């Protein structure tokens, strides 16, 4: 641990030694000559030596003062240069957005480049988690939540409604609902949300479709939606998936929606603390999500509504 005198006393000594005047040092540091004299006397008392020889109209350094001055001057110069260098560095501006793992991978990652084009000088941090973060506590500036849209204490901006339908690789050759009993079903876990909300499942789809000649519980089950999507793309079976999350694969033909019915899901909302809309990171995220990103995710929704 460094044992140093008070910085104020060291600064007073350095300025007085450089200026060869308590009065000039006082003017430089914005204090009175009496304050400079007091600081230096305290420093001398702490060191047990005299640093200045006092004369009527001037002060001169003692041998000990001349020994201390160069090292102290260089140290203060180095400190000043370091502070100036730090001040010249542009302040990093970071906006943190949290969303589910699947939403992040399918709808955010493909468009992250547009964020920096819209907001030069800003960095984007994506937090992918199926566990909701506490945006009120600052764990993220904003979040995209999936649910009914009721989030007390948070401002809610609706993004899109979600629909679910059977989708699969075109190589499976599924064309009719009657082909489904011979296919492998792909499931994914909804986690705690399943106990609180009515979520789309193969059992619910079977009830709506009237098709009862297959086991809606059998097949392959993943604990996350992203893995279920990848399994469907790989041709491992037919999955009941969010049409919003697989819109790109449906457009490219990597996946097909061979038949219905379509089940209505919940909705995605952008949320942030009440009254935070003017905070720079929140404003940047809101602008990005509601313009550039919304343009991409709303297009498939509009096409499906048009087909309906």
TrEMBL record:
Question: Does the record's keyword annotation contain DNA-binding?
Answer: yes
Q: Which residues form the HTH lysR-type domain?
A: 5-62
Spell out the PROSITE patterns in the cross-references.
HTH_LYSR
Q: Which UniProt keywords apply?
A: DNA-binding, Transcription, Transcription regulation
Question: Which SUPFAM superfamilies does the entry mention?
Answer: Periplasmic binding protein-like II (SSF53850), Winged helix' DNA-binding domain (SSF46785)
- Pfam family example for this protein? HTH_1
Stretches assigned to coiled coil = none
Please verify whether the record's keywords include DNA-binding: yes
Q: Which family does the record claim for this protein?
A: Belongs to the LysR transcriptional regulatory family.
Protein name as it appears in the record: LysR family transcriptional regulator
Organism name: Plastoroseomonas hellenica
């Amino acid at each position: 641990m460094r044992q140093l005198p008070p910085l104020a006393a060291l600064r007073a000594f350095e300025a007085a030694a450089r200026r060869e005047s308590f009065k000039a040092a006082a003017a430089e540091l914005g204090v009175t000559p009496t304050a400079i004299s007091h600081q230096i006397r305290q420093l001398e008392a702490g060191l047990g030596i005299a640093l200045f020889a006092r004369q009527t109209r001037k002060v001169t350094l003692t041998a000990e003062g001349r020994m201390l001055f160069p090292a102290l001057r260089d140290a203060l110069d180095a400190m000043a240069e370091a502070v100036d260098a730090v001040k010249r560095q542009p302040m990093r501006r970071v906006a943190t957005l949290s969303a589910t793992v699947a939403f992040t991978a399918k709808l955010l990652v493909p468009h992250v480049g547009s964020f920096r084009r819209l907001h030069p000088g800003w960095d984007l941090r994506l937090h992918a988690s199926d566990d909701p973060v506490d945006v009120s506590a600052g764990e993220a500036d904003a979040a995209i939540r999936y649910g009914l849209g009721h989030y007390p204490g948070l401002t809610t901006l609706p993004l899109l409604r979600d629909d679910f339908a059977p989708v699969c690789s075109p190589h499976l050759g599924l064309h009719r609902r009657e082909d489904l009993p011979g296919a492998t079903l792909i499931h994914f876990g909804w986690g705690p949300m399943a106990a609180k909300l009515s979520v789309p499942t193969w059992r619910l789809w079977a009830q709506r479709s009237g098709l009862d000649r297959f086991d809606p519980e059998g097949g392959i089950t993943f604990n996350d939606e992203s893995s279920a999507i990848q399994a469907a793309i790989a041709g491992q079976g037919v999955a009941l998936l969010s049409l919003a999350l697989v819109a790109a694969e449906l457009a490219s033909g990597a996946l097909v929606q061979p038949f219905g019915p379509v089940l209505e899901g919940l909705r995605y909302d952008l949320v942030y603390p009440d009254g935070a809309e003017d905070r720079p990171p929140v404003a940047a995220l809101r602008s990005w999500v509601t313009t550039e990103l919304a343009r991409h995710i709303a297009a498939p929704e509009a096409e499906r509504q048009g087909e309906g």
